């Protein structure tokens, strides 16, 4: 997402909020950057809500860290556009994105490890996969 913002026109600094929002809406790369960021934060929040019932404490923790960091990044992005493009908001937006990315990469690694361990457990003859049709089914 950061690449999208970096390839477009330079965001005007020190201008009014209405000028900033007009600029954002007029430049497709910045608008796409904002939309993808918002969608990623919504998806992360949904995933965090789905982990409430999981027994894996680390999975829940990493997911919630990722969701909070993603929402922080979106909030900082909104404040960056609205508050004369202060460097504080740009730093918070970038830090939130990095923290969310790291949390979800760690979650992916932990989940992958759990799946491999489960498939290698005694009594598990085949790795998990799509159901196989028997010869009498088709």
What does this entry look like structurally?
The structure is a single chain. With 138 residues, this protein is mostly helical. The protein has one domain (2-9, 16-118). It contains five helices and no strands. The protein has helices at residues 2-6, 17-26, 28-50, 57-82, 87-119. Helix 4 (57-82) packs antiparallel against helix 5 (87-119). The longest helix has 33 residues, at 87-119. The protein starts with a helix and ends in a 19-residue tail after the last helix.
Number of helices in the DSSP assignment:
5
Relative strand content: under 5%
Number of domains: 1
**Major sheet summary line:** none
Give the overall pLDDT as a whole number. Answer: 79
Secondary structure class reads mainly alpha
Shape field: elongated
DSSP strand tally: 0
The helix/strand series, from N terminus to C terminus, equals HHHHH
What is the alpha-carbon Rg in Å?
A: 21 Å
Helicity range: over 70%
Low-confidence stretches: none
Distance between the first and last residues' Cα: 46 Å
Topology, element by element:
Blueprint: H1 2-6, H2 17-26, H3 28-50, H4 57-82, H5 87-119
Helix pairs in contact: 3-4, 4-5
